Amino acid sequence: MASPVFTRRFLDSLPGDDQTDPTSREVTGALWSLAQPTAVADPKLVAWSRPLAEELGFDDEHMQDPKTARVLGGNALWPGMDPYAANYGGHQFGHWAGQLGDGRAIGLGELTRPDGESAELQLKGAGPTAYSRRADGRAVLRSSIREFLCSEAMHALGVPTTRALSLVLTGDQIVRDMFYDGNAAPEPGAIVCRVAPSFLRFGSYQLPCSRKDHALLKTLADFTLENWFPQFAGQGKDGYAAWLAEVADRTAQTIAHWQAVGFVHGVLNTDNMSILGLTIDYGPYGWTDNYDLGWTPNTTDAQQHRYAFGNQPTIGMWNIARLGEALLPLLDNDESCIEAAATRYQESYSKHATKRFSDKLGITFEPDDVKLIQDGFDWLGKEETDMTVFFRSLSNVVTEAEAPNAMPSACQAAFYGEPSESHVAAGVAWLQRWWQRTRKESRAPTELATAMDRCNPKFVLRNWLSQTAIDAAHKGDYSVLERLQKVMQRPFDDQPEHDELAAKRPEWARHKPGCSALSCSS
Ligand code: AMP
Ligand code: MG
User: Fold this and answer.
1) What CA–CA distance (Å, rounded) separates 473 from 257?
2) Strand pairing of 185-196 and 95-99?
3) Is a pLDDT exceeding 90 seen at residue 178?
4) With contact defined as beta carbons under 8 Å apart, do 175 and 57 qualify?
């Protein structure tokens, strides 16, 4: 196929920086700076997403063309590409951090997919930009594998997310202090090509507001509305207020989905919050193995637990409030618009979380079910029990002819260690209540089981699984990565030949770095 042709809507519609060199600097009055990827030694395409390539209109031949690896590694450009780094700020761990920007992500431009939708391509780890501060603009293989695999795994689960087209090994070594303990060491470098309709973040709006550049804020907001929320464009304050509420709604829906599958983002700073409600910026994220609302994968957050699993819904709302404050100049400083967005967030979260949790249990929600659902999750968190294995096992129990009078073996597989007798007894009592409740459904138990298996994934990208792919890749073996990629494309299908990838976390992984805790060093 011919090289795809790219357009530069972001650059053509929004003011940019006059300077073109990558020296780190404060960039005011501009939403982007030009940024050429820095060439790498030997770009090798080690993995790519066929489903995404197809959506973009790239066939296998195009993906395997050596020129493609050069573009996706930052050593060449396709026609129309005009690389840039976006300017944005953010609240990090609750504190305003000022300008951040794309320090190691470089936007390549936009293309129109065969289905008419637009897609922006961005290289993460392609070298320094005006926003790199003292860092090198690069990314290591381990974090790139994690972002590549998880973006596509989340998409397959149905969770709104940025996508990942490719993983390129750069052939360069990068020095990182993985544990921040003074032991810096070289590691292989890599570049992921991320894809999304837009990479705008809450922090994109916060930065111009923080500088009282209300004209720039309005230009960006109007650009956003015209392109991504046309239903609210050209309506002044009311349109901006409706947009804020819509972002609140989408954010709540995405986070409700995270809670339902056990995904923990790990760094929900406002620069990592997509204006489209997508999951964005896969850093020290993780999946809760044993259901634990207090768990965070991020070692930087180990003390505070700000971004722990159970805090995500509240943090989402905190972030919406920060976005609302940034938009106040467009809202005639009417704070009731922020309150309205917060209410919308709460209502949306409650509605979607309830629906997802009920679906997991195979029940059509009725107000009386609140206690059943809550009791189930409370029980799950009391003694170490694998969330994914437990929910997946329920489709086996729902088809039983009678309510269970002992812990079903399918559920037993979810326990880490030996559960106490009282815990087992409480679990059986809960399963009985739930089983009785399922009999009130109009659908037959077999139908319920099928529906439950469509929303309780068998396969999620557990931390230890990614680590096995990383360990193998460090030895030059990408077969583990390929297998995970393939299996995670069909997370709800049984795929019995891959049963061991559905197993709960093995003991060796409990405290192993990368499997239990991750630093931001990437
Ligand atoms: P993150 O925690 O990945 O969201 O990154 C926060 C900020 O630090 C963003 O502005 C990133 O672009 C920047 N950043 C992180 N790592 C690097 C790096 N290796 N080189 C340059 N900038 C980076
Ligand atoms: Mg970020």
Assistant:
1) 30
2) unpaired
3) no
4) no
Contact 88, 271 (CB under 8 A): yes
Query: Best of 104, 122, 298, 522 to mutate for ligand 1, by most ligand atoms within 8 A of CB?
Result: 104
Average pLDDT of 319-337?
Answer: 98
Q: Say which ligand is closest to the CA of 97.
A: 1
Tell me how long the chain is. 522
> What are the DSSP E strand ranges found in 118-239?
118-124, 139-140, 163-176, 185-196
Reported as a single tens digit per residue, the pLDDT across 355-368 is 999 999 999 999 99
Query: Mean pLDDT of all residues in the chain?
Result: 97
Residue 271 appears among annotated catalytic residues: yes
Distance CA 472, CA 469 (A): 5
Active-site pick, 271, 281, 386, 453: 271
Cα separation, 442 vs 363, in Å, equals: 10
With 0-12 CB in 10 A as exposed, 13-18 as middle and 19+ as buried, what is 50? middle
DSSP string, 51-70: HHHHHHT--HHHHHSHHHHH
Contact residues for 120 (Cβ-Cβ < 8 A; gap 6+)? 10, 107, 108, 109, 110, 195, 196, 197, 198, 199
CA 288 to chain CA centroid, Å, is 14
pLDDT in the model for residue 315: 98
Which ligand is closest in space to the CA of residue 38? 1
Residues 141, 158: Cα–Cα separation, whole Å: 26
First and final C-alpha spacing in the chain: 35
Rounded Cα distance between 147 and 485, Å, is: 12
- Residue 520 CA: nearest ligand 1 atom is 2
Beta bridge partners of 93: none
Task: Provide the token pair at 337.
Answer: 């618009």
Among the bound ligands, name the one nearest to the CA of residue 105. Answer: 1
Q: What is the DSSP string of 318-376?
A: HHHHHHHHHHGGGGTT-THHHHHHHHHHHHHHHHHHHHHHHHHHT----TTHHHHHHHH
Element housing 222 (H / E): helix 214-228
User: What is the distance in A from the centroid of ligand 2 to the CA of 281?
Assistant: 5
Task: Quote the CA–CA distance of 432 and 449 in Å, as a whole number.
Answer: 16
| Threshold 0.90, pTM exceeds | yes
Return the best residue to mutate from 32, 95, 100 for the ligand 1 pocket (most ligand atoms within 8 A of CB): 100
Residue 197: phi and psi, rounded to 5, are -60, -35
User: How many whole angstroms separate alpha carbon 263 and alpha carbon 257?
Assistant: 8
User: Residue holding tokens 């997802």?
Assistant: 356
Binding-site residues, ligand 1, Cβ < 6 A: 100-104, 131-132, 135-138, 267, 271-272, 281, 283, 520
Contact assessment for residue 274 and residue 196, using Cβ atoms and an 8 Å cutoff? yes
Using pLDDT thresholds of 50, 70 and 90, give the confidence band for residue 180.
confident
Specify which residues 47 forms β-bridges with. Answer: 167
For residue 380, give every residue at least 6 positions away whose Cβ sits within 8 Å of its Cβ, in sequence order, or none: 291, 387, 390
Ligand 1 center to 128 CA (angstroms): 10
Nearest to 169 by CA among 151, 194, 150, 144: 144
